[in-house]
Specification:
Shape: globular
CATH class of the largest domain: Alpha Beta
Structural class: alpha+beta
Strand content: 25-35%
Largest sheet: 7 strands, mixed
Bound molecules: adenosine-2'-monophosphate, calcium ion
CATH topology of the largest domain: Fructose-1,6-Bisphosphatase, Chain A, domain 1
Number of helices: 8
Length: 266
């Protein structure tokens, strides 16, 4: 007998694989691309279609549940009461448009504010990450080991988006400079969901970004938590999932060391 969270996972995975197939099949067709808040904030008809795909299925299968999605086809969610599906149909839209890879579908189910399942699907690599509350995190069905907390900053691979570090000056420049000089290497992938998944599987040790929304982090936070990692604001504070804000997710062994730099507000 499957638990309710396992049932959500099986259902979510089936829909995500189906959505991924649709994206791959339509990949070569011309895209209508619009900008949202600025010239580097893109949305395509694919983002909208895929979000509608999920909205329709959730509404039909779980009429009492609510959905919060980036493109607004879900409900107007201002609290996490009941069961809420949090979905980003395409995380890394700029990668989708320019590279036709390195983007993901991100889906999480929260019940009374607790993250039950988190799924991230790297559509072109066909890598499926999932986590079930209390039951661990997995990549393509293989359980991910707990992160080794004996890591120090010198051995840390840090991901951050330089553009947002420059434009949203939420952390002092001097501190950021010291931080990037202290770690082993700095990387940018351009999909917050994938960057969370990479922290969970050890490809990265930490990821920080300056203005992430609920759908960017909802699934990733569950994955990282299930391997013993920590997600907070860049100032080390507890996250309010429904806020847009600066976040840091990392191996627990270096979280405090990173916050010692990033807690210095501009
Ligand atoms: P998106 O592709 O779903 O829009 C790129 O660094 C990552 O940051 C992506 O996950 C992208 O999500 C997200 N992102 C989008 N708009 C952003 C913004 N205004 N500030 C910070 N990150 C943003
Ligand atoms: Ca998106």
């Amino acid at each position: 007998m499957k638990t309710i969270k396992e049932q959500y996972y099986i259902q979510a995975k089936q829909w995500m694989i189906e959505a991924g197939k649709i994206i791959r099949e339509r990949m070569d067709q011309p895209l209508f691309i619009e900008t949202k808040s600025g010239r580097n904030d893109l949305v395509t008809e694919m983002d909208k279609n895929i979000e509608q795909f999920f909205a329709a299925r959730i509404e039909q299968t779980y009429p009492n549940h609510r959905m919060l999605g980036e493109e607004g086809f879900g409900d107007h969610v201002t609290d996490l009461q009941g069961t809420v599906w949090i979905i980003d149909p395409i995380d890394g839209t700029m990668n989708f448009v320019h590279q036709q890879k390195n983007f993901a579908i991100s889906l999480a189910v929260y019940e009374e504010g607790i993250g039950l399942i988190g799924c991230i699907y790297d559509v072109m690599a066909d890598d499926f990450y999932h986590a079930i509350h209390g039951e661990g995190a997995y990549k393509n069905g293989v359980r991910l080991p707990r992160l080794n907390e004996r890591l120090t900053l010198e051995g840390t691979m840090l991901a951050c988006n330089h553009f947002w570090l420059c434009t949203n000056k939420l952390v002092s420049y001097a501190s950021m400079e010291k931080l990037v000089r202290s770690v082993r290497g700095v990387r940018t992938y351009g999909s917050a969901a994938l960057e969370f998944a990479f922290v969970a599987d050890g490809t990265l040790d930490a990821y920080m970004s300056m203005r992430l929304a609920p759908w960017d982090i909802a699934a990733g936070m569950i994955l990282v938590r299930e391997v013993g990692g920590v997600t907070t604001t860049v100032y080390g504070e507890k996250i309010n999932l429904l806020d847009n804000g600066p976040i840091l997710t990392s191996n627990a062994g270096v979280h405090g060391e990173i916050v010692a730099y990033t807690k210095h507000k501009k």
